[in-house]
Design brief:
Layout (H helix, E strand, L loop, with lengths): L4 E6 L4 H12 L4 E8 L7 E4 L2 E4 L1 E2 L10 E4 L3 H13 L3 E4 L30 E3 L5 H14 L2 E10 L6 H15 L31 H13 L6 E8 L6 E9 L5 H9 L4 E3 L11 H4 L5 E8 L6 E8 L3 H19 L1
Parallel strand pairs: 1-2, 1-6, 2-5, 6-7, 7-8, 9-10, 12-13
Antiparallel strand pairs: 3-4, 9-11, 11-14, 13-14
C-alpha cells in the first residue's frame, strides 16, 4: 500500500463516520488528501485526524472532484443521491446504507467471507457493506456452512442503541439519568422508553409483520453466502446498552456438526474469536467486544430438539466490524487488488 489515495468521508460527524476516520489513522490506510463531508448543519465543525483538525465541508454535487475513494456513512437518502455522483466523478464508493445492498449489479461484501465479489464494483463504482446485524451472523455461519451445509437459521438479536446513531445513545443516557432522579423524560428517537426496556421493533414493519431490519438479515445473508433459498427466521430487538450487538443463533445443518467441530472451524475462521468456557463463566459479552474488530462466538451447544442442530451466541462491536471496520476492510482490499 505505498500509493496514497484521496479520500472523502460522507457523514463525517456521525457515529460511523467518526469511527471510520479513527480507523483510517489506526490502520494506516494510505490516505493522502482527506475531505470530510456532512450536511449544512455540521458545516464548519472540526474533526481530529492524524494530529490535525480538519474542517467539515458541506456535501454537494461538486464535493467529489479528485476523490478516489468515498465512504458513505450518512444514511440512505444521501447515499442514493450522491453515491452515483461520486462514482461518475471517478470515486469508488463504499456505502454503509441499505440502499444498494440488494442491487444485483452492486457487490455486497464481508471481506473475510466473499472477497471475490469485490471485482463487480466496476459495474457501478459502488460497493455495499452489510447491515450491522447481518455481518456477525454471517461471519460465524459462513465457515461452518463451507464444511456442512446450513439448512435453517433462527436468530434473535439484542442490538445496542448506538445502531440508531449518536442521538439514540444520548436518549438512553438522558432517560436513565431522569429515571434515577425521578424526573420526567420524553421519547424522541424511539417509539417507547428505551432505558430499562427492550423494544422488539427496529426499523419499519412490513406487510409480512417482520421489520425491515429483520428482512435485511434474510436477504443480505442469502446474497453474501450465495444461497438464495436459505431458510432464515429473524427477530430484531433494541436493548438498553450503548455498544455492541448480540445474537442468539439456532442453526440446523444438513449433516453432522458437533460443538467441537464448530469450535475448531470457528477458531480458524478469519474475523472470529471463540470464547466458550461456560463452566468458568467465559462467554462473549458486550464488554468483551467493545472496541474490537472481531466477532466473538460462544455458548456453542447442541440443539437437542432437532437432528444436526446447534445453538450459539455471538457479539460484535456494531460501530466497528458491524459498520466502519468492514467498510475500511473493503477499501483496503480495493487498494490491494483492484485499484
Amino acid at each position: 500500500m505505498s500509493r496514497e489515495f484521496s479520500v472523502a468521508v460522507v457523514g463525517a460527524t456521525g457515529a460511523v463516520g467518526r469511527q471510520i476516520i479513527k480507523l483510517i489513522e489506526e490502520r494506516n490506510f494510505p490516505v493522502g488528501d482527506m475531505k470530510l463531508l456532512a450536511s449544512e448543519r455540521s458545516e464548519g465543525k472540526k474533526v481530529e485526524f492524524a494530529g490535525k483538525r480538519l474542517i467539515v465541508e458541506k456535501l454537494d454535487e461538486n464535493s467529489f472532484q479528485g476523490i478516489q475513494i468515498a465512504f458513505f456513512c450518512a444514511g440512505g437518502r444521501l447515499s442514493e443521491e450522491y453515491a452515483p455522483i461520486a462514482a461518475q466523478a471517478g470515486a469508488v464508493c463504499v456505502d454503509k446504507s441499505s440502499v444498494f445492498r440488494m442491487d444485483p449489479d452492486i457487490p455486497l461484501v464481508i471481506p473475510e467471507v466473499n472477497p471475490e465479489a469485490l471485482g463487480e464494483f466496476k459495474n457501478t463504482g459502488i460497493v455495499a457493506s452489510p447491515n450491522c446485524s447481518t455481518t456477525p451472523m454471517v461471519l460465524a455461519l459462513a465457515p461452518m456452512h463451507k464444511q456442512v451445509r446450513v439448512r435453517r437459521v433462527v436468530v434473535s438479536t439484542y442490538q445496542s442503541v448506538s445502531g440508531a446513531g449518536a442521538p439514540a445513545m444520548e436518549e438512553l443516557a438522558r432517560q436513565t439519568t431522569a429515571i434515577f432522579n425521578g424526573k420526567s423524560y420524553e421519547n424522541k428517537v424511539f417509539n417507547h422508553q428505551i432505558a430499562f426496556n427492550c423494544i422488539p421493533h427496529i426499523d419499519q414493519f412490513m406487510a409480512n409483520s417482520y421489520t425491515r431490519e429483520e428482512m435485511k438479515m434474510v436477504h443480505e445473508t442469502r446474497k453474501i453466502m450465495n444461497e438464495p433459498n436459505m431458510l432464515i427466521s429473524p427477530t430484531a430487538v433494541r436493548v438498553p446498552v450503548f455498544s455492541c450487538h448480540c445474537e442468539s443463533v439456532n442453526v440446523e445443518f444438513e449433516g453432522k456438526m458437533t460443538p467441537d467441530m464448530a469450535r475448531d472451524i470457528l477458531s480458524n475462521a478469519p474475523g472470529v474469536a471463540v470464547v466458550d468456557d461456560p463452566i468458568n463463566n467465559k462467554y462473549p459479552m458486550n464488554i468483551t467486544a467493545t472496541d474490537s474488530d472481531e466477532t466473538f462466538v460462544g455458548r456453542i451447544r447442541v440443539d437437542e430438539t432437532v437432528e444436526n442442530g446447534l445453538n450459539f451466541w455471538c457479539v460484535t462491536d456494531n460501530l466497528r466490524k458491524g459498520a466502519a471496520t468492514n467498510a475500511l476492510q473493503i477499501a483496503e482490499l480495493l487498494v490491494e487488488k483492484h485499484l
